[in-house]
Amino acid sequence: MPIITSPQEFNVDDLYVDLRHVIDRPIYLKCEGFNFAGSVKLKAAAAMVEAAERDGALTPDSVIVESSSGNLGIALSLIAASRGLKFVCVTDPRCNPASMRVMRALGAEVRVVSDKDANGGYLGGRISHVRNLCESDGRYVWLNQYANRNNWMAHYRGTAPAIDREFPDLEVLFVGAGTTGTLMGCARYFRERKRPVTIVAVDAVGSVTFGGIPERRMVPGLGTSSRPALVDESFIDDVVHVPEPDTIRTVHALASRGFLFGGSTGTVVSGASRWLDEKYPGEDPVAVAIAPDLGERYLDSIYEDGWVREHFGDVLSDAAGILGD
C-alpha cells in the first residue's frame, strides 16, 4: 500500500490500453492521467520546481508564474499548494473552464489573456504578460516550460525508461508536441541508446512548431503559435499533423468504448492511426503512443454537443468510422 506525504509522489506509470481491441489499430496507449494533477505535466512541473529550489531561484517568498493552456497550470497549482507557495497561471480563452476551476480550488490565481500574437494565437500574449509580471516584482519566478531543460529531462529520466522497460522491442513511439518536453525527453533517451525506434511527433494542424501555417485552434494542449525553444528536429523521424475535426471524432470514438480521454490524446491516437495505416498497412509493429491526460476536464468543450457543433459543425456524424469492425 503506497503511503505518500505530497501529491506529486503518486503516479501510475505502467498502465497501457491495447487499442487493437478498441479502434482496431496496433497501438499500446500509455496512460499518463492517473495522478493527482491528472496529466503527464506533473512530471515536468515537479522537475522544474525542484530544480529551481536547488538553484536558489525559488524561495519561500517567491511567487511561481507560468503560461499554460491548462494541464501544466494544474500541476503547478498542486505542487505550489503542497509547498505553501503562491502560483499565478497565465492562460487564454481556450483553457477549459474545468481546468480553471481546478487551479482556483488549489489556491492558484488564474489570469486570462486575450491578446493574440502575430500568428493569431495567444501564446505570445501570455508570455508577454508573464514577462511583465516578472519585471514588475522580483518575487515572481518564471519556470518557462518552453525553454526549461528540466521539462524534457523529466521524461528522459522517467517516461522513456518506463516505456523501455515494458516494451524492449519497441519499434515506433508516437508523442504529441506541445512544449515538446515529453517528445524531446523520450526522443533523446532512445537516440542516445542507439535504439532502432522510430520517433513520430504528432502535432495539430494550425500549429507552427514544425513549420506549419498558423490557423485557428480550439482544442487546448498540443500545438503552438510560437516555436518552442526545446524542439530539436534532428531527434525526430517524422511529423504528423492532425486536423482538429479528426481529434474530435477520435475522442468520441474512444469514449464510445468506455475510454474518456482528453483532446491531446485524441490528436495523438488519430495521428498514430493514420501514420500506421500508411507506413505499416496490414502489419502489426510494436507501437506505443502517449496519452497525456483524461477527459473529465473537457466535458464543457469537446464532449459537449453544442460546443462541438458551434466550432466544428456536424463532425460527429461519422465518428463511428474511426472504430474497427
Structural overview:
The chain is α/β, with parallel strands linked by helices. It folds into two domains: 7-34 and 148-322, Rossmann fold, CATH 3.40.50; 41-142, Rossmann fold. It has nine helices and ten strands. The strands form two sheets. A six-stranded mixed sheet has the order 1-2-10-7-8-9, with helices on both faces. The chain has a four-stranded parallel sheet with strand order 5-4-3-6, with helices on both faces. Helix 2 links the parallel strand 3 and strand 4. Helix 1 (41-54) packs across helix 2, helix 1 (41-54) crosses helix 5 and helix 2 (71-83) packs parallel to helix 3. The chain is globular, with a radius of gyration of 19 Å. The mean pLDDT is 93.
Name the average pLDDT: 93
The gyration radius over C-alpha positions equals 19 Å
**Total domains:** 2
Largest sheet: 6 strands, mixed
List the strand order in the largest sheet: 1-2-10-7-8-9
Offer a quick outline of the entry.
This protein has 325 residues and is an alpha/beta fold. Helices cover 36% and strands 14% of the residues.
What key phrases describe this protein's structure?
325 residues; alpha/beta; Rossmann fold; 2 domains; six-stranded mixed sheet; four-stranded parallel sheet; 9 helices
Helix-strand layout with pairing:
Layout: E1 16-18, E2 28-31, H1 41-54, E3 63-67, H2 71-83, E4 86-91, H3 97-105, E5 109-112, H4 123-136, E6 140-142, H5 149-166, E7 172-176, H6 181-192, E8 198-204, E9 238-242, H7 244-255, H8 263-279, E10 287-291, H9 305-312
Parallel strand pairs: 2-10, 3-4, 3-6, 4-5, 7-8, 7-10, 8-9
Antiparallel strand pairs: 1-2
Helix pairs in contact: 1-2, 1-5, 2-3, 5-6, 7-8
